[in-house]
Amino acid sequence: MSADNLWPDAKKFAFTIFDDTDNATVANVGPVYSFLADCGFRTTKSVWVVDGNPHRGNCVGDSCAKPDYLRWVKNLQSRGFEIGFHNCSWHGLPRDEIRAALDRFVDLFGNNPQSAANHTGVEESIYWADARLSGWRRWVYNLLTRFHNYKRFTGHVEGNEYFWGDFCKERIKYLRNFTYHEINTLKACPFMPYHDPQRPFVNYWFASSDGHDLPTFNECLSEENQDRLEEEGGACIMYTHFAKKFCEDGKLNPRFRELMLRLSKKNGWFVPTATLLDYLLKVNGHHAISNAERRGLEMKWLGEKIFTGTT
Ligand SMILES: [Zn+2]
Question: Is the pTM of this model over 0.70?
Answer without folding.
Answer: yes
